[in-house]
Amino acid sequence: MKTDFHCHVLPEFDDGAKSIDESIAILKEQKQQGFDTVVATSHFYRNKETYEQFVLRRQKAYHKLESAVSGLDIPDIVLGAEVLFYSSIIDDEVDGLCISGTKFLLLEMPFYSLSKPELNLLIDFIESTEYKIIFAHIERYSKLYDKELYESVLSFDNALYQVNCDSFGDRVLRKVALKLIKQGRVHIIGTDAHNMTSRPPLYNDAAAIINKKLGSEYLDAFHMRGEAVLADKSISKILSI
After folding, report:
1. For residue 1, what pLDDT band results from cuts at 50, 70 and 90?
2. Which of 4, 22, 78, 128 is packed most tightly, with the most Cβ within 10 A?
3. Reading across the β-sheet that carries 3-7, which strands appear in turn?
């Protein structure tokens, strides 16, 4: 089973699909690229809305999409969120932001260099939380963080790391992503698709590069780990795949 663990397919919700038609176009393309399941990871920004507001708004968007796609040959849609790390997350209950049916939470890091106190908050959160963390598009921070900070974010042995398909179209990010995959420091893949123009699903392009540079076994491992995530397996079991 092949799962896209990162995409913005819910209509009129965030900076992703702007209409039902665009959502359907994305889903059809994901099906064409072999995805059986798509995790709708809409952006959650705690400084813009409450947890309760987000969950309610997401449910309405999902129901609208669900009605429109009835009978279409598209992947199964599973709800989740892309949660921008915030200081008080360590004290919050965010079950509804996890990938549905699991304790896995897709966590986005800020796109600026973390201060020492912010890094300490992140460390405290990862070490104490009941949630199983997946770091979103980990390769992208290589351009933003200095080497020490980047290694700190990559160093958690009780978390998973996700890579974006569209990063393989960028010469610098492609090199970083391939290196991390080869080192066993990236565990699952996502398209991070937002639309069908500037940010479409690009799994086939990424898969062709990974297959050529590293071998098909790395893609197979992505998909096996994906099944384990949806089954809510432990981090240790997933890391052993």
Report:
1. confident
2. 4
3. 3-7, 37-40, 76-79
214: CB partners within 8 A, 6+ apart: 178, 181, 182
Taking only the tens place, the pLDDT of each residue in 14-70 is 999 999 999 999 999 999 999 999 999 999 999 999 999 999 999 999 999 999 999
Phi, psi of 159 (to 5 degrees): -140, 165
Mean pLDDT of 207-224: 97
Query: What is the second-level CATH architecture of the domain 3-239?
Result: Alpha-Beta Barrel (3.20)
Sorted by sequence, the CB contacts under 8 Å of residue 60 that are 6+ apart come out as: none
DSSP secondary structure of 74-122 = --EEEE--EEE--GGGGG---GGGSSTTSSEEEEEPPSSPPPHHHHHHH
Residue holding tokens 């992505």? 222
Ramachandran category for residue 176: left, alpha or beta (phi over 0 → left; psi -120 to 50 → alpha)? alpha
User: Is 159:153 a contact under the CB 8 Å cutoff?
Assistant: no
**Residue length, the chain?**
241
- Compute the distance between CA of residue 144 and CA of residue 130 in angstroms, rounded to an integer: 29
Rounded distance between C-alpha atoms, residue 219 and residue 38, angstroms: 17
C-alpha torsion 169→174→178→184, nearest 10: -100
Strand partners, 4: 38
